[in-house]
């Protein structure tokens, strides 16, 4: 089913929601006084749509860097007569007091506020307006919601001396929340009296007190007939806690797990405690004891343990106390305990670190509220993906994507998650992934690059991008990828390996793409960035991959793009070309890339006068004899000169070398090349070559062009014959054969 889910297109509802949120002004809203969003008066939306709009909005603000949040977004939902809200999930700094205040007239049934650190006690008062309808409420990680600002002295002048102080609100309780059944107070601030806070609630069904330290939990027994779910993650337990829990006989889900790295716990689990749970909590279907140390051995003898086929039957359980269960548990959390490595565990789903299934279960169970555990689970997945083969690839990928989206600012998750993605997207898994899934990967990778200037994350993200077909698969985020890579390359202090990968990616991105893409990237400063890299390498006297890739990227980005060619000349590109030639006379690959680029510059008529200097012409003429990279350097040098010759004798504005002398060297060079040479070059269009055919001003240019076409169509007929026909080369060749000025050998070749 997961395969199906990831492949199926987005629902129409999702697409419309996304479109409306990105175009609020053009769809649901108009702008009042050029600043405030207002709903069109004829719009009435039910809660099914409004909930989705609000929840998607929060998601977009959180995960899409291009999406702009609106100051007045929540005011669109202030009037229940036109917009109804019922179930909303708000997170982090996206939500402020005034946003909740704006929707206070709504009859909310479910309100999840996760890590909303900007909310203060003002929002506690707003919660009261939902008290008659709220069934489910989460204040997880809202660390300031019990603080109000106190203004000491109350006078204006005094405030400057004593800025507002944060004071803990002591008198708030859930009085009047008559329908509240599900409550999450995870990571509640110290000093709030939980017992007093909760006392007015008549019948709680689910309570989460993660990360709160309570010495006395006796008050929980007031809900012993209604409580079905209790979470006490990271609470330091004692015998008293255990006795209270054992009285909550209706419990179906109990979580007493802990993060074994977080602090010192006196409490140790024993066989007796587990027995007590099994005997008293007869409805239990889910139990989490992750991170606990077992004080004594709870396992059956190892001989018996290894016997028979793996079983989830309680009677065969390797963990002795669980033999008393009536039926297998739906879920058993054993992450970072020794018990998860046993053979017979009486549960359908187990979180642990023994194998891929257990690790994925852990990531799934803990991502939302426990990033500290999740990052360690993803680290285990990383090892599995790197060393063995992942058998549940799609599930693994989706879980990592979710974790990276959910914890965009958590360094550990960004580091481990981006590393895992690299292994989960490499070529051996390629076939199993849909376009939609691969796009999601690209999105979270780019988010990571944006949020983290940290070397490891940047490297992992760049490496992961290398697993994609470039530029095709990155086309949908083309501008953004280029901006991020140029950003990396423009940093003053650079990590060598990242620099190398980033230049490689930049080069691939401008290879074989449309000219408007190249122009756009040129305007972003691409040419300048590459020249700066070359300058740095020259100063260090190193010709490495970064140097070669940078020239190659310039070759690609100037292809049939005059603006970028002009930028190359304006930013002293020719000076760098000459210096590189002098500094690295033996580097063939480098010479080929540089001359390929100059070939592009020479194709632009308006720029050719800038190449017309004694120094440049001498350099190009000498390179005609170069044997670097087969014929490539000589061929490109001859190409540059062919375009210059095509401008005629009157454009030859120099005394030395003489035009005739250079022409003679060009003929000699062309005659020395093997007509069947295999080539290190890729033509998207023959137009710049074909324009050298119908002219009599420079027979040698005509001959170079004919030789180039002949070589390419004979060595690579499948690729280049159709291109020659499509671009009208045949009639041009026929006409040239009739020309008196054309040389005999040129006509032969053309024929």
From TrEMBL:
Which UniProt keywords are given for this protein, alphabetically ordered? Acetylation, Leucine-rich repeat, Repeat, Ubl conjugation pathway
Which residues does the UniProt record annotate as the domain Zer-1-like leucine-rich repeats region? 196-337
- Show the GO cellular component annotation of the record: Cul2-RING ubiquitin ligase complex
Q: Which superkingdom does the taxonomy of this entry point to?
A: Eukaryota
Which Pfam family is one of those matched by this entry? ZER1-like_2nd
Q: Name the SUPFAM superfamilies for this protein.
A: ARM repeat (SSF48371), RNI-like (SSF52047)
Chain ranges of the Protein zer-1 homolog-like C-terminal domain = 404-750
> InterPro entries attached here?
ARM-like, ARM-type_fold, Armadillo, LRR_dom_sf, LRR_Zer-1, ZER1-like_C, Zyg-11_UBL_adapter
Q: How does it assemble?
A: Interacts with the ELOC-ELOB/Elongin BC complex. Part of an E3 ubiquitin ligase complex including ZER1, CUL2 and Elongin BC.
Q: Which family does it belong to?
A: Belongs to the zyg-11 family.
Question: Known PANTHER family for this protein?
Answer: PROTEIN ZER-1 HOMOLOG, PTHR12904
Task: Identify this protein by name.
Answer: Protein zer-1 homolog
* Organism encoding this protein: Nicator chloris
Gene behind the chain: Zer1
